[in-house]
Amino acid sequence: MTAIATLGSHCALQVLKGAKDEGLKTILVCERKRERLYRRFSFIDELILVDSFTEILEQKHQSILEQNNAVLIPHGTLIAQMSSEQIESIKTPIFGNKWILRWESDRTMKEKLMREARLPVPKPVLHSKDIDKLVIVKRQGAAGGKGYFLAANQEDYNKKREQLISQGIISKEETLYIQEYAAGVLAYLQFFYSPLKEELEFFGADQRHESDIEGLARIPSEQQLKNTKVPSFNVIGNSPIVLRESLLDEVYTMGENFVEASKRIVSPGMNGPFCIEGVYDENAKFTSFEFSARIVAGTNIYMDGSPYYSLLFNEPMSMGKRIAREIKTAKGTNQLDKITT
Amino acid sequence: MTAIATLGSHCALQVLKGAKDEGLKTILVCERKRERLYRRFSFIDELILVDSFTEILEQKHQSILEQNNAVLIPHGTLIAQMSSEQIESIKTPIFGNKWILRWESDRTMKEKLMREARLPVPKPVLHSKDIDKLVIVKRQGAAGGKGYFLAANQEDYNKKREQLISQGIISKEETLYIQEYAAGVLAYLQFFYSPLKEELEFFGADQRHESDIEGLARIPSEQQLKNTKVPSFNVIGNSPIVLRESLLDEVYTMGENFVEASKRIVSPGMNGPFCIEGVYDENAKFTSFEFSARIVAGTNIYMDGSPYYSLLFNEPMSMGKRIAREIKTAKGTNQLDKITT
Amino acid sequence: MTAIATLGSHCALQVLKGAKDEGLKTILVCERKRERLYRRFSFIDELILVDSFTEILEQKHQSILEQNNAVLIPHGTLIAQMSSEQIESIKTPIFGNKWILRWESDRTMKEKLMREARLPVPKPVLHSKDIDKLVIVKRQGAAGGKGYFLAANQEDYNKKREQLISQGIISKEETLYIQEYAAGVLAYLQFFYSPLKEELEFFGADQRHESDIEGLARIPSEQQLKNTKVPSFNVIGNSPIVLRESLLDEVYTMGENFVEASKRIVSPGMNGPFCIEGVYDENAKFTSFEFSARIVAGTNIYMDGSPYYSLLFNEPMSMGKRIAREIKTAKGTNQLDKITT
Predict the structure, then answer these.
(1) Please, which pLDDT band fits residue B140 given cuts at 50, 70 and 90?
(2) How many CB pairs under 8 A join A and B?
(3) What's the domain range around A198?
(4) Strand B135-138 vs strand B177-180: parallel, antiparallel, or unpaired?
(5) What is the signed CA dihedral for C200, C204, C210, C215, rounded to 10 degrees?
(6) A81 plus A221 within the same structural domain
(7) Of A259, B74, B241, C221, which residue has the fewest beta carbons closer than 10 angstroms?
(8) Which chains form contacts with chain C, at 3 or more CB pairs under 8 Å?
(9) Candidates B11, B43, B215; nearest CB to C185
(10) What would the pLDDT profile of C220-243 be if each residue is shown by its tens digit?
């Protein structure tokens, strides 16, 4: 008997529903404050209640997971709330590659892997005095976009940075990261790489809803110009998008390049779900500004299957179910070590 | 034998398709001018043709509904086209709570119920001279957003109001309702409360497409500034959105607070589908500017099931089907009086 | 045995998956550079490899299609890459009406058919000196929106046209086509007309994501005004939308008017899938700026069925599957000539 475990947030519902549909036991590591929410869902077999997610490092919780032959599915909350060292020290087998999560969290390593994968990245701007066109200013880690801002020049950068510091949104010491702003159609490309089949699957794409930048679109310019508030990029939700079919070949190529680069520089490579995040410009050229080396919350829009997976599977297949299917297959053929770390 | 009846507009197709899928008889109260549209759908068993929806108050139509043991599903068109008194005088059992529809239609009662439910509401602005930041100006009732406008100050308010009056869009006598404008990511939260199970279900969320405010987003500022037209908020359609999972706990809490407040002040409470409508700001804090105390048209995007309902049901489940399921269950256990008024 | 063939782009995956689900043989005319992409999908039975799509005019390829009793499904790529004469000379039976594709490609014929169908069209502006409100400037043919631009007056028109010429995006000789810009909620209305059932079906609606005009919405006015770049309208993808139910009657009427007008002026009429493309203004009045006389890529969002088709079919039904279903029915009743040209 195998169990699937994950932290209670991000895409836990999708992951555990998929696991249950595949006949696996489901375990949720759940903050006490969220217990009421997750008790609503009957497909969650067992709750491990904690006050903070870092408690899963404790022996007693690790033991429960071990007794259940649990595989832990990592997601954005794991990365946001635990350090790379903590994640790497988890004894429970982690689906995919736990070592690559450090490459997602650290801006310098992230850029290195993206260059290695030949992903077209926005030009970094090393110093605020070098800002000569629209830039986006980001923070370290998977902060969900809160505190990100746009700036047109150094003066603008300083003004907005100080405004955000005075509001307590960013801290004075924080190293900010400046990129040329890539404008166009946002697309978050969701993949699954199966080391069992040695095949890459394109699952789907989504767009993020970020607040309050999204609200700008509905405020007439006349009113916008009277307002000095710095718009932010706090992710609130996701919506579906399908891509022009002529873009799919390059989508797959980018995914494969990422899988291959990961194999070379962070063994055993990019196994399981991941996401390449970027924007299509007016020439339909893609620029990638981020990747996620694990399931993304954007897959939640396809809780009952995605358009692209309906091409590959003759049944409704969410990303959570795909993960569970992979674990079942690996278990059945004694290859769990191939898909976990 | 039970029948489901509804007015031909808003979400009638979804409601009656769901009823047919549950094996119930379906009756549409249909304006003659729309007969051709609705005859296209074979799941509609019977049409009651009228020139105006208020005719359903007439004895002959009430009799047909009575003979069929019909339950009437109320929606936005019922509220838009009939007064609260008329709705309350309908003899046919109405699904949910017909008394609460008055609280939706009347701005003052609406605000009272929202405060009672501890929903965070935008600050009302009592007089146009008090406008000191961006506000939205609304009309009474469920007008679908037509004639709503934004204003930055009293001068702006007067200019736009007069422009809309001169265009015949609003009338001189009409009382307008001014709220501080909440900017960010719009989310219309769709719920179903079952008094049979005494459980609240979160069905899904949608975003509204409103004209012509949505078109603004595609007009460069340079051109916007040359244009004096007042953008409007006429609802044209809806699109799906899923929320960051960490927001769900608060979503359920808001829904439960609304259900409990309704139980206290408008018996028998908020039974069946309802919607809390608002916006997430840059801190992911929700502000609610409206509620609908019945099924909303935004559920039409999930005609074959929503992402969140696929967590609760192991079959495709639309809101229309959910309603029919509740009626069937109530009928089978002799509890129809518990879910109708 | 009947086969379905199509060109490898646009909506080929949806079309062939639908055909396979209906038990038909599937053939893809595939550019060699895209072979790797399409080999990933096991529902494609046979690939005809070409260097350029015009090769399907060659006898050897026509023979293969003939031997397989293939019906060719036309889509946007066929129109974009071949002339009307070339398309009309194809020997393989083409689903729908190949003669109407010329009416889609040619602006003058297109307008004529739209007027004949009584579609409300935006006012054409015959000369750039006549621009007195916001206009959109378009190119001939199905260019996917690249090189389209907005202009507020003649000076603006000249400036932007010259900028695009100097960037090599449009050519100096190219005839541009100027229309009054219709602002509001974009909606691409997808239909299927069955000459076998003599019935029009409304399949669904979508919105297009165009770059980089879509990106404007996320750039504050202050920054937009500092930027001189001309936004473009290159289609990147599509998202789902459902319409207010009170709009559906007019949607069907527009579709039927289009079908009838097509019957009158371009025999055998508008059979199979088509799309009426336009925008709803603040009075919910629709203005149509284009039509597509064949399947549109926006149907790809409904790869596993659309909300509106779930009202008509008790099974997941994509547009690709609907086409295959029609061909199977025609074949089984010896009416293939009724649905192909």
Answers:
(1) confident
(2) 128
(3) 105-120+184-317
(4) antiparallel
(5) 150
(6) no
(7) A259
(8) A, B
(9) B215
(10) 998 898 877 888 889 999 999 999
